[in-house]
Design a protein that fits this description.
single chain; 2 domains; 5-stranded antiparallel sheet; 9 strands; Acyl-CoA_hotdog
């Protein structure tokens, strides 16, 4: 089991019972001793089972949390645009450097700089060795994603060698209505895929049907290619 030691700059505080579990998980801590508008992850970043890097969605949320702490309370997020450059390890702390680009009367622009976000899928042969609850969750996700109803069917499909997000944009239409610890309905479609890349459009709705946010994501998906016998590595 991977140790939590060194994953945060400071020992994590007790979880706040007055906050939702997701709020505690995504909490960031200001590090004024290092400079102005610098934050770090309060708790260890989540590393999905079988993945090489930390989960990018967690870090996107922490970027928003850090940026929100640098603007007046009257301003709410209306959009965020993220670019993933390198993979990230959950064994080292993350620093979020917020740059105040523009403070306007109606809009404020900030840039949050971090590093290393990469997500790899779990290989079918790794599933039997996972804990039963994790295995059941992965099988449910695989079926939902159209990869088959069981590990055997999943293993018969072409193997994904790499799956990486290149960029991700989120437009918040009703930020005050977004409750991450409540039920949300998502609708996803891919209008284009080719040349090892794909684009996904996503709409997120509240339980009453209100459109809360629209997302656009581009990623790289590459299948594993069989190695030819005697082939050179060059």
């Amino acid at each position: 089991m991977e140790s939590d030691e060194g994953a945060t700059l400071m020992p994590p505080p007790p979880r706040d019972p007055n906050k939702a579990p997701i709020e505690n998980t995504l909490e960031v801590t200001e590090m004024s001793v290092l400079g102005k508008d610098i934050f770090t992850n309060t708790r260890k970043a989540w590393h999905p089972p079988g993945a090489r890097g930390i989960y990018g969605g967690t870090v996107i949320a922490q970027c928003l949390a850090a940026a929100q702490k640098t603007v007046p309370d009257a301003f709410l997020v209306h959009s965020c645009h993220c670019y993933f450059l390198l993979a990230g390890a959950g064994t080292v702390p993350i620093l979020f450097h917020v740059e105040r680009v523009r403070d306007g009367r109606y809009f404020i622009g900030t840039v949050v700089r971090i590093h290393r976000l990469w997500r790899f899928p779990v290989e079918p042969e790794d599933v039997p060795g996972l804990a039963p609850p994790v295995r059941r969750q992965l099988e449910q996700v695989a079926e939902f994603e159209g990869m088959g109803s069981g590990v055997d069917e999943w293993a018969g499909r072409p193997v994904v060698g790499m799956q990486v997000s290149l960029d991700h944009s989120i437009y918040f239409h009703e930020p005050l209505r977004v409750q991450a610890d409540d039920w949300l309905f998502t609708e996803m479609e891919s209008p284009w895929a080719g040349d090892g890349r794909g684009v996904v459009l996503q709409r997120i709705f509240a339980k009453d049907g209100t459109l809360l946010a629209t997302c656009v994501q581009e990623g790289v998906v590459r299948l594993k290619q069989p190695k030819a016998e005697g082939s050179s590595k060059l």
